[in-house]
């Protein structure tokens, strides 16, 4: 069985939705994971923002505008008659529900419920569309088998255990459709896998059913060798190893959710990144092995905060780093990059909710310096121990840009540099010219 995920643009209009059957072969066994129609989750985030601020009027205006968009969507997607009525009922149900939410207390728990509506709408409408043209399919409720624990970690055995009986129940059916992004948390509440999480749903499902392959269908022909939104002339990469893809996703390549590679890697499920607008294009294959000896791609992650702890006490005396890391652990704050010297350690985080409390505790060790608005630029490729010359090419490309931290040798496939976010565009372009042109 395969898992095929279609992103927001791929289901972004009735026309696009109808065209999915150019790619989906209903005669093949597969689970199709759909994102929300593009723009919907952003609108739902905005609506929740208003409701959290108790601006009910503005929220209702936004809800009505989105409702109208879906009314039009239904008219275009479904021919007049029973199926269009069904589609309209579904749309009205979800928007009446949203409007009703604005009458009661609104907390982050309700916010998650609001954010879930996009995927619930897209999958139900697509299911009705398939019915309307006589293509059999089964709609599987992701909230019955996608789950995260108290640390936001997905529970793959839970998914396997709860999905298998559903697939068994509908034995003989081939085409299953489900929602990306949404799940339940350890309290049983509706939750999600963070923005862009439908990719993660696809790879978690791939792992849970030991799929033959996971296909991520999007609006570009695979992972490019630099951010195509910033740099001109980027090119798709035909092969990436799981490790390379994980680094790129984690360090900002938006085409993949940051965590989405890990389940596929752990369960050895190949992942293909493919273009809905150009289905014949080769795309990118992410698998265990990869081409050796090449610089593959450049990515950048914004919103980074650097923390430097300068200590008069022997910094690298044993136990010191542990004490520093324990503080971050206690505040559930992951560290991205780290560099050390005899008298100081610098590290970066992107989750800053607990920064004040962390800094307060770090002061026990010495002085603490904070730099905000930083960007990690990450160069990914095969930099095995016997390789040489790559670091100097990277640094040469960035010789006109102030570098705050450098991390090299942590793995065989990553060189990371911390720069001011204001220098990112120039850094990506300069690296591209030096490494790929
Ligand atoms: P979807 O809605 O299908 O999940 P996304 O917008 O999340 O699509 O991801 C696809 C987008 O990622 C592309 O349109 C592109 O602009 C952006 N992107 C950023 N970095 C890269 C990269 N290195 N390679 C390919 N696409 C990238
Ligand atoms: N709809 C969600 C988002 O916009 C999930 C996804 O598209 O992957 O973030
Ligand atoms: Mg995405």
CATH class of the largest domain: Alpha Beta
Low-confidence stretches: none
- The sequence of SSEs as H and E is EHEHHHHEHEEEHEEHHEEEHEEHEHEEH
Distance between the termini: 40 Å
Helical run tally: 13
Structural class call reads alpha/beta
CATH architecture of the largest domain: 3-Layer(aba) Sandwich
What is the strand tally?
16
**Rg estimate, integer Å:** 23 Å
Domain unit count: 2
Overall pLDDT metric: 95
> What small molecules does the structure contain?
adenosine-5'-diphosphate, aspartic acid, magnesium ion
Organism: Pedobacter nutrimenti
Catalytic activity: L-aspartate + ATP = 4-phospho-L-aspartate + ADP
Family: Belongs to the aspartokinase family.
GO molecular function, one term: ATP binding
Short recap of the structure:
With 437 residues, this protein is of the alpha/beta class. It has helices spanning 14-19, 40-52, 56-77, 82-101, 108-132, 156-169, 198-208, 242-250, 261-266, 320-330, 355-362, 390-397, 424-436; strands at residues 2-6, 30-34, 138-140, 175-179, 182-184, 190-192, 213-218, 239-241, 271-275, 284-287, 295-310, 338-340, 344-349, 367-381, 403-408, 414-420. Helix 4 (82-101) runs antiparallel to helix 5 (108-132).
